[in-house]
Amino acid sequence: MKKVKLLLFGGFRLININGETLTPSARKAKALLAWLAVNPDQQYPREKLAAVLWPDSDETQGRHSLRQALADLRKVIPDDNGPLHTTKDWIMLDSGQIDVDVHIFNACLAAGDEAALDQAIDAYKGEFLEGCNPHSDSFDEWLATYRADFSVRASAAIEQRLQQLLEQQDYERACYFAVRLLGIEPLQEQAYRALMQAHAGLGNLATALRWYRRCRSLLQRELGVEPDPATQALYKALMAGQEDTDPAVAEEEAAAYCLTCNSGKPASRKPLGSRERVLYLLESALEGILDQIGGQGFLIRGESSSEKSVIIKAATQLAASHGFSCCQRQIPQMSADTDGQVIQALIGGSTDCLSRQPVLLVVEDIHLASMDTLKLLAELIAVAGSGDILLLMTSCFGGEPLDPVWRGAMRGAPLTTIDL
After folding, report:
1. pTM for this one?
2. Within a domain: residue 339?
3. What's the N-to-C CA distance of the chain in angstroms?
4. Is residue 159 part of a domain?
5. C-alpha 308: how far from its chain's center?
6. Could you tell me the residue range of the domain that residue 96 belongs to?
7. Of 99, 156, 284, 380, which is least surrounded by CB within 10 A?
């Protein structure tokens, strides 16, 4: 029996045989374990690992830092016949002693049948090593390559299952998978078409048309283009089936729906800065709520408190200008024995605000929150997905508060993570 399980999609989580979470204290210890886990059963020279994780250190200091990271891992991973094998020259991770979600994902994609694809999609809880920031350019390059690869392959698997589910007329599951796809690729028109088809199949024609309007406004704002012919043809077919709707009026409403489109003019080709990008995405979420599609959660991560404050101020002004009730809370830095007080303050202080929907709820510094508070926020995101709530959270990189279990509590509701 394997002694530990490592989850790398949607964050970093190491679990022992009893289901207990094991937490290495150092970020680079986590990065080291992830590097070894992606390609196990290989003897990596210590010099190479030190160069990857500590590129600015000389060889002596790099090897010393590597030993410290190994010591940190050995505090939480069983040592007797455990997965970590080392000599003075190399380090290796034994795949026979550890389960890694990445390899489950790969194996299920290789199998390719419907059940295996569902298992692969379920394993992909979120971006590979989301929140991992060991401050190493070499590691970042490695990480970016794997993130892009896993994202593309997960999207392809979801697209394949979407087509199968639509053919099987399993519209409820098709909606779930389409939302999952939009979480990976927000501009993926196939996902919008699937949502339009699925809601029409469920008899929710008005919701199907709302998804078209959301697709159209996002494409206009982000790319300055109209939906492709297949999406427009589906929209026209749905409109033809809505007897009480005047097509000319519907087109006028769809054009007016985009809050910041350039009246049919091409969007600016100037690259967006991080602040502008956040506000564009937030505005798309606001218009989704206004069109009764549902809310979602956002996590803004960064070290600059002033930059996050500017974004929060702009977001609240934008939300208020469109009739949203705005409520703002901050997680204080305090000891664990006051967690209950934090939760009660968050719930009690926000209840009145949440009752006046649509609402923007801002919660700052969640890297300081306890797991109980984080679970409450996960539940709020889950509620947002079926309501008129936009939850905006901020954190620093160092806290890395979100893990795959936390995401599971969201019950599939959309969460967008943006690094400043």
Report:
1. 0.73
2. yes
3. 42
4. no
5. 19
6. 4-114
7. 156
